[in-house]
Structures are given as structure tokens and as C-alpha cells.
Amino acid sequence: MWSVARVATAKGMAHCPETGGQGSSSFSEVKQLGEMMRACRDYQADYDTMLRAKLNYFCELPEQQQAYVGDLVLDRLRQCRRGVSQNAQFLAMMLKCYERGDGGPDTLVLAQDKQGEPEHDPQWHGHDCREANMSRVRRVFQQVYREWTVEGAQERDRTFLPLLDDLEREFERFRTMTNSDKKLQRHEYRVLCPGCGLGRLPLEIRRHGMSVQGNENNALHLMISNFLLNQTYSSEGVLLRHVIFPFIMSSNNIRSAADQRLCCSVPDVDPRELAQATDGGEFSMCAGDFVESYRDESSRNAWHAVVTSFFLDTAQNVIEYIETIYALLVEGGSWINIGPLLYHYADSLHIRSIELTLEELMVVIDRVGFDVVEPVSFVQAPYAADPNSMLQDICA
Ligand SMILES: C[S@@+](CC[C@H](N)C(=O)[O-])C[C@H]1O[C@@H](n2cnc3c(N)ncnc32)[C@H](O)[C@@H]1O
User: Fold this and answer.
1) How confident is the model at residue 111 (pLDDT cuts 50, 70, 90)?
2) Which SMART domains match (predicted)?
3) How many angstroms is it from 181 CA to the middle of ligand 1?
4) pLDDT tens for each residue of 10-28
């Protein structure tokens, strides 16, 4: 992780050819949402198809092989199906508020399509696009685990606590730096959190009393964060908690059936506390691609801090992200970052991307004009990881 500050005078901008433009965007935002909603509806049926294929294969094994462990495997798969049904219920509850019209696509219009996404390429459409959406839906329960469960708190703490500590330090630094008589109030400190997933990090920043805006471009993440932040109440105003099985779809490195059936209740906190806060601070979400959403003049010099968690490597052009962050910050404002350099498009056949080393990245950060406040340090942080898995990927 690192913290850098925007200095008064830029040392010079790094220039780099644009990488976008591998095809024009023909995919409407509403259609994208519609397809994701369909994938949510198909989650159970899709699993059942997979399960049937597995059972068929198992039943084709020699009888003796089936007899060794058949009762255990069949019982485990039966239990897994129950867990998957529970996850499907969670998705159905979420979709219901869109069908009711109180959280529908209108509230989640994405700012811009991102050019070059394979989903936007008509030739890529059909089966591949559906499979990509299904895979997102299958994986999203692990993201819900990371952000909105008691069980995920340990993982969150490894990432969010260091970020929040640095944000506190940067807030104090900014306050002492400004020469005005009237010191900046906590709620006046404006923090932007691009690629905020399901919105937990912005919520934690708001809980620290600062004003915050989350930004996210994934339709499924937007739907779920909207659901968890705004819709999990009964008509009597009681917080409704949902049970999910985040790792029920895992097949690898599982120690036992019980581990696979780890079940969690969501959300772990009542997000209404935000609405009840009377300090004048703001909380908002901006739907859309980060660079496109904050390109306009009004976004420039508008934020005291940008906080990024596991976001930088989602870029096709990471230099464009860095330039955008720099332009968004007020003079003396800070960018605090944590996360690996596991570039999302590095192995893509469809999408071009630039993959810089940490060393190269720090050169860009310097040449774009940032001053290093807190040099690079390494924290061990898992990401949406099954705590019981025999294989633990930890980002250093
Ligand atoms: C690895 S996740 C990190 C989520 C969250 N920050 C966390 O630490 O749990 C990266 C997030 O960035 C989002 N994202 C990727 N590219 C984006 C873009 N161009 N604009 C906005 N969000 C983006 C993804 O949809 C995803 O939710």
C-alpha cells in the first residue's frame, strides 16, 4: 500500500497513447442490467444443470468406486443444493425490489459503456457473454462475504483498517496544511472511492465522519450494494438479514463438507445509521466507468482524498487511472492505495492492456506529479478468500 499527495505544482504529466477504441460501444446500459438480472434468475437452474452432470458422471463410475464414498458425496451434494437454493433466494429478494420498481434499473443507469469490453462486441455475444455473467453471479457471494458478513471482518480489517488509518492521518495533514482560520470540518473532507465493489469501504469511510462517494461499474455489484444499503428492511422498518453460503460453489481445496457449507448472515451492520447521522456529511454512489464518470470539468480539484482498494489493476491503461486520480484531487489532497498488481486484462485475447511493474508504476506516480507521503509498504491481505481453504492466496 502507499499514500501519495498531490503537490501544489505538477512536476510534469506522463504521456501515453490511448489504448481504448477496439470497437464501438453498442451495448446499452439497460440491456447490460437486464442480462445480469437474467443471470441472477438462472443461478439455481444453472447450478442444477451442473449438478446433474456431476451426478450422472458419478453414477457412471464402477459400482465399487461409487460404494467407497457414494453416501458421503451424495449427501454433500444434496446439502450443497440447499445452500445454493438459499443463495438463489437472496438473489430473488434483490430482484424483487427491482421488479417492484423501488430500486429498478432507472436508479442504476451506468454513466458510460466502456469501450473494448468483450461484452460490447456483438461478435462476442451470446453464449460467452451469458457464461461470463453466470460466473460473476456465482462469484459474487464471496464478495458479499468479504464486505457484508461478520465472518469476513478479519479479511476486511487487513485491508480497510490500514486504509482508514492512513485516511485519518491524511485528513489531519490536510487540515494543518491549510492556512485558513476556519479549519476544515471532518464532514467537509470529501473522499472518492473508485471500484468500491459492494460499497462497504465507502460506508466505513462515512462512519469515520467524512463525506464519501463510491464509484462502481459492475451492474451486479451495483444492484447488490443498492439492495444491502437501502432495501433490507421490512415494511415495519425491521432490518432483514439474509443467509448466504459464500463458498458453496467451490470445488477445490475443501477440507470437509462442513467447510463448504459455511453460512453467513448479511448484512452484518444496519446501514440506516448513515441516514440517521446528523453531521451534515454525504454518502453517495456513482454508477459507471471510473475514467468516464469523472472526466468532466466539475470533477477536477473536487476531492480531498481518493481511496482505492484492489482497484488499480482493473485498468486497461493504469496510467490513465493515475492521471485521472491526480486531476480529481485538490492541491495537497491524497491518494491512498492498497492492492495487488494482478492486471485483469493481462491474459485477455480481446482487450489490450498495459501491465506496469510496481517500480514503473511508482515512476509514473512521481512524474504525474504526486509526492510520496507514505512509501510503499506490504501488508498480507486475502481477497474474498475461503478462510478454511487448503490454498490461501494472500496479496503481499
Ligand atoms: C477487485 S474489486 C475490489 C472491490 C473493493 N474495492 C474491495 O476492496 O473489496 C474491483 C472492483 O472495481 C470495479 N471496477 C473495475 N473496473 C472499474 C472501472 N473502470 N470503473 C469503476 N469500477 C470498476 C469492479 O467491478 C470491482 O467491483
Assistant:
1) very low
2) N2227
3) 38
4) 222 222 222 222 333 334 6
Ligand 1 pocket: which of 314, 328, 341 to mutate (most atoms <8 Å of CB)? 314
Domain that holds residue 217: 2-14+25-111+126-395
> How close is the Cα of 313 to the center of ligand 1, in Å?
9
Kindly report the CATH number assigned to the domain that includes residue 130. 3.40.50.150
166 C-alpha vs ligand 1 centroid, how far in Å?
Answer: 20
pLDDT, one tens digit per residue, over 142-199 is 999 999 999 999 999 999 999 999 999 999 999 998 777 788 999 999 999 999 999 9
Ligand 1 within 6 A of 309 CB? Answer: yes
Number of domains, the chain: 1
Amino acid at 161: L
Helices 43-60 and 29-41 pack at an angle, to 10 degrees, of 40
In a domain, 307, yes or no: yes
Specify the length of the chain in residues.
Answer: 396
* Complete DSSP assignment for 31-58: HHHHHHHHHHHTHHHHHHHHHHHHHHHH
Residue 275, all three cell numbers: 441516514
Does some domain include residue 64? yes
